[in-house]
Amino acid sequence: MKLCRFGPLDQETPGLIDDTGMLRSLKGVLPDITAAYLSPDKLDALRAINPNTLPVVSEAPRYGIPFSGAGKYICIGLNYRDHAEEAGLPLPSEPIVFMKAISALTGPSDGILIPKQATKVDWEVELAVIIGTKASYVSPEKALEHVAGYCVANDVSERSFQMQTSQWDKGKGCDTFGPLGPWLVTTDEIADPQALSMRLDINGHRRQTGHTSNMIFDVRSIISHVSNYMTLMPGDIIATGTPAGVGMGIKPHPVYLEPGDVVELEIEGLGIQRQMVRSTHA
Questions:
Q1: Residue 136's CB: how many other CB atoms inside 10 A?
Q2: Closest by alpha carbon to 108, among 234, 265, 258, 267?
């Protein structure tokens, strides 16, 4: 299934995308797509609904975050070989874990706001894993059993904030720095999370081209590793790293986002995001 939430901010309606790509409303079936609806039994109940019985949404809506009630937003740094190379850093010996503020979350096309005093706002297309059932000390072999689905994520980053200390969080957690969606695609539609192509364009110019097979630590290993240090709960998000092509890595002169830029990113089977960049002074 491709689950979504659409409509004005804070007034989103639950929906799904049918096999023809048509948006259908789940209003009246459930009040919202919350973390509680990400368990296998709840997803099975939604999957049993015939989409043809649901109302078609004919207008082009705003898409919100695909589910409400996200708990933790966990990120994995330097998880693609080519990205570590462009950063001039050695391959990590274990996943680099940091947190992104939940308040950074925003819809996939709501736009990116350049914070005050920011000078180096960067882009990162990432595969986001959405946890569906509680996971603690899980093995890699069992890890994917705890996944509800996958989303496109843009791990927007302010590099000057990020590099001011050894802790990256303040450069990652600014408002609008967490576009997620447009859909939550459940695991029955994604046979292998390590077999997905990904790309990101700025103003129509290709900046990132990657593939999830190039992760240093695959999704199974990441979930298992993180679950050894914190219990993963339904609605937790794990962004799994970005391939080469970020603005910071462009040689000889890095390139960063400016007001008016348009960012478009896509992961195979998970949909497309499109964001306009604006200034806090606009």
A1: 12
A2: 265
- Cβ-based neighbour number of residue 123 at 10 Å: 27
Residue located via tokens 């990120």: 75
Instruction: Supply 238's token pair.
Output: 């794990």
Phi-psi category of residue 242: left, alpha or beta, with phi > 0 → left and psi -120 to 50 → alpha: beta
Rg (C-alpha) for the chain, rounded Å, is 18
Name the DSSP class of 90: P
Main-chain dihedrals φ then ψ at residue 165, nearest 5 degrees: -140, 180
The DSSP symbol for 95 reads -
DSSP 8-state symbol, 169:
G
pTM beyond 0.90: yes
Confidence band for 104, pLDDT divided at 50, 70 and 90: very high
From CA 52, how far away is CA 19, in angstroms rounded? 10
CA dihedral for 110, 116, 121, 127, sign (positive or negative): negative
Provide CB contacts within 8 A for 117, sequence distance 6+.
none
What's the pLDDT score for residue 161?
81
Question: 73 CB contacts (<8 Å, ≥6 apart)?
Answer: 99, 100, 101, 102, 104, 105, 178, 236, 237, 239
Q: What whole-number distance in Å separates Cα of residue 106 and Cα of residue 175?
A: 8
- The answer to whether residue 251 scores a pLDDT higher than 80 is yes
The pair of three-digit structure tokens given for residue 62, joined into one six-digit string: 């705003």
Rounded to an integer, the average pLDDT of 140-159 is: 97
Question: Looking at the DSSP assignment, which residues form a beta bridge with residue 147?
Answer: 131
For range 103-125, the mean pLDDT: 96
Burial of 22 by CB count in 10 Å (0-12 exposed, 13-18 middle, 19+ buried)?
middle
Q: pLDDT at position 281, please?
A: 60
Measuring CA to CA, which residue among 256, 232, 267, 274 is closest to residue 72?
232
